[in-house]
């Protein structure tokens, strides 16, 4: 939600640059995020505040319209569908689009994370490593302007490659607003499947959590509780993988109903739970 809100703010800025008009604050904004966005643009000397009587209007600085403008979105973008939303924005306004992927070993990521002032739990880094989808220009034509750099082994040659090959190529070859229908349908399917997986994961986590609470209320022995948790989490992981691969249960459709998914999972969960509850008696 935060990522999409920032894309909405970015679109406000783009429309102002393209039209040469002032930029106004969008309705239904999150004030803190909007202020951070405005501060970033001001720090880059791209905008400045308008007259006092219009506190939420901003004028474009000369630097925003007098020379090539590169907008860098620094995020993990671990799903292709996340990056595709940015591509869609570039296509909508016929802008250049490119991707820079820092290919970093998991061990290095864990080491760097440990050096942060507010380090994330290591489990988060492991989960990100499993989820991340590298650019695949062979499969996705819209990812053809992608460059992979090995991190931490970045070099001066890599920096020049980023400038010459990626940025200038993207600048000189803006995205065509006309795209093949088959590619559009495929990306719609990917976005749909990603959303369904996310919702399914959240739902199954809640079911597992509630089941473990019920088991504790039933005073299931600690050793059996551990075994029950392991089996339920294994079932959840297998279930999501089957769902991701489309092997069983259902195929992704724009109107997918997660109640069927939940029902299938609860049936298999029931068999496991009964086994441990019966041990207790």
Describe this structure in words.
This protein has 281 residues and is mostly helical. It folds into three domains: 1-68; 70-178, P-loop containing nucleotide triphosphate hydrolases (Rossmann fold, 3-Layer(aba) Sandwich), CATH 3.40.50.300; 181-277, no CATH class. 60% of the residues lie in helices and 7% in strands. The chain contains ten helices and five strands. The protein has helices at residues 2-19, 31-43, 62-65, 80-92, 106-114, 122-131, 156-172, 181-217, 222-245, 258-280, and strands spanning 23-24, 47-49, 57-60, 99-103, 146-150. The strands form two sheets. It has a three-stranded antiparallel β-sheet. The protein has a two-stranded parallel ribbon with strand order 4-5. Strand 2 and strand 3 form a beta hairpin. It starts with a helix and ends with a helix. Mean pLDDT is 82; it is low at 248-256.
List the helices and strands and how they pair.
Layout: H1 2-19, E1 23-24, H2 31-43, E2 47-49, E3 57-60, H3 62-65, H4 80-92, E4 99-103, H5 106-114, H6 122-131, E5 146-150, H7 156-172, H8 181-217, H9 222-245, H10 258-280
Parallel strand pairs: 4-5
Antiparallel strand pairs: 1-3, 2-3
Helix pairs in contact: 4-8, 5-6, 8-9, 8-10, 9-10
Structural class: mainly alpha
Shape: elongated
The helix-strand sequence is HEHEEHHEHHEHHHH
E-strand count: 5
Helix content: 55-70%
- CATH architect. name of the largest domain: 3-Layer(aba) Sandwich
What distance lies between the first and last C-alpha atoms, to the nearest angstrom? 47 Å
Number of continuous helical runs? 10
Main beta sheet: 3 strands, antiparallel
What is the strand content?
Answer: 5-15%
CATH-wise, what's the superfamily of the largest domain?
Answer: P-loop containing nucleotide triphosphate hydrolases
Strand line-up across the major sheet: 1-3-2
CATH topology of the largest domain, by name, is Rossmann fold
What is the radius of gyration computed over CA atoms, rounded to a whole number of angstroms?
A: 24 Å
Give the tally of structural domains: 3
Which residues form runs of ≥5 with pLDDT under 50? Answer: 248-256
What is the typical, i.e. mean, pLDDT? 82
What is the CATH class designation of the largest domain? Alpha Beta
Protein name: L-seryl-tRNA(Sec) kinase
GO molecular function, one term: tRNA binding
Keywords: ATP-binding, Nucleotide-binding
Pfam families: KTI12 (PF08433)
